[in-house]
Amino acid sequence: MTDTLSAAVVGGSGFTGGELLRLLDGHPEFEIAQATSREYEKKTLGSVHPNLRHLDTRFSDPTDLESVDVLFAATPHGVSMQHIDAFQDAADTVVDLSADFRLDSEEQYDEWYDGHSCPEYLEKSEYALPEINRENLPGADLIAAGGCNATATVLGLKPLFDAGILEGDEQVVVDVKVGSSEGGASAGKASSHAERSGVVRPYAPTGHRHEAEIEQFLGLSVSFTVHAVDMIRGASATCHVFPTGPVSKGDMWGAYRESYDDEPFMRMASGGGGVYRYPEPKAVAGTNFGEVGFEVDPSNKRLVVFSAIDNMMKGSAGQAVHAANVALGLEETAGLEFTGFHPVGAP
Amino acid sequence: MTDTLSAAVVGGSGFTGGELLRLLDGHPEFEIAQATSREYEKKTLGSVHPNLRHLDTRFSDPTDLESVDVLFAATPHGVSMQHIDAFQDAADTVVDLSADFRLDSEEQYDEWYDGHSCPEYLEKSEYALPEINRENLPGADLIAAGGCNATATVLGLKPLFDAGILEGDEQVVVDVKVGSSEGGASAGKASSHAERSGVVRPYAPTGHRHEAEIEQFLGLSVSFTVHAVDMIRGASATCHVFPTGPVSKGDMWGAYRESYDDEPFMRMASGGGGVYRYPEPKAVAGTNFGEVGFEVDPSNKRLVVFSAIDNMMKGSAGQAVHAANVALGLEETAGLEFTGFHPVGAP
Amino acid sequence: MTDTLSAAVVGGSGFTGGELLRLLDGHPEFEIAQATSREYEKKTLGSVHPNLRHLDTRFSDPTDLESVDVLFAATPHGVSMQHIDAFQDAADTVVDLSADFRLDSEEQYDEWYDGHSCPEYLEKSEYALPEINRENLPGADLIAAGGCNATATVLGLKPLFDAGILEGDEQVVVDVKVGSSEGGASAGKASSHAERSGVVRPYAPTGHRHEAEIEQFLGLSVSFTVHAVDMIRGASATCHVFPTGPVSKGDMWGAYRESYDDEPFMRMASGGGGVYRYPEPKAVAGTNFGEVGFEVDPSNKRLVVFSAIDNMMKGSAGQAVHAANVALGLEETAGLEFTGFHPVGAP
Amino acid sequence: MTDTLSAAVVGGSGFTGGELLRLLDGHPEFEIAQATSREYEKKTLGSVHPNLRHLDTRFSDPTDLESVDVLFAATPHGVSMQHIDAFQDAADTVVDLSADFRLDSEEQYDEWYDGHSCPEYLEKSEYALPEINRENLPGADLIAAGGCNATATVLGLKPLFDAGILEGDEQVVVDVKVGSSEGGASAGKASSHAERSGVVRPYAPTGHRHEAEIEQFLGLSVSFTVHAVDMIRGASATCHVFPTGPVSKGDMWGAYRESYDDEPFMRMASGGGGVYRYPEPKAVAGTNFGEVGFEVDPSNKRLVVFSAIDNMMKGSAGQAVHAANVALGLEETAGLEFTGFHPVGAP
Question: Where does NADP(+) bind (chains A, B, C, D) (predicted)?
Answer without folding.
Answer: 13-16, 311
